[in-house]
Amino acid sequence: MLKKLFGKKSVEENIVAPLSGKVVSLDEVPDPVFSQRMMGDGIAIEPSNGKVVSPVDGEVVQLFPTNHAVGIKTKSGVEVLVHIGLETVAMEGEGFEGHVTTGDTVKAGDALITFDTDLVNEKAKSTITPVVITNYDDIVEQFDASYSDAADAGETTVITLQTK
């Protein structure tokens, strides 16, 4: 009731592709943690290269020590996780280079991580990269995903959402 009285305003957020490549449904991710949306809803990208950029303007709230995943929180509170590949944590950071640290402010398109796609193909289960709204149930009112065969990192809008 207070929220309605004092009006926390709904905000539209556009999330751009953090990698260039093919944008697919989370249903296509061969890992139930993502395909069953246990971490939240989103999309996945089959990357065409190893350059990861910020999908939103916000603050880096977590860069995993192994540099295989990064979390960013927007000003409106949307938390976006970019998880490079599947079972990449087991690589213990080999082939990954982080370009940001926790607490950094980033703009959509800023470099976050680079990784060796050949090494990930060789040592991990897959290079498919889930992009997930981790606080989806708490914050998302409306969600629209845009699938594409050729998204451009930092340019192509892959998710448009309305906050509660």
TrEMBL record:
- GO cellular component labels: cytoplasm
Coarse class of the protein's main subcellular location: cytoplasm
Q: Name one GO molecular function term.
A: kinase activity
Q: What InterPro entries does this protein's entry cite?
A: Dup_hybrid_motif (IPR011055), PTS_EIIA_1_perm (IPR001127), PTS_EIIA_component (IPR050890)
Instruction: Tell me where in this chain the PTS EIIA type-1 domain is found.
Output: 31-135
Disulfide bond as a keyword of this entry, yes or no, is no
Q: Which NCBIfam families match?
A: PTBA
Q: What is this protein called?
A: PTS system glucose-specific EIIA component
- Lineage of source species: Bacteria, Bacillati, Bacillota, Bacilli, Bacillales
Q: Which gene encodes it?
A: crr
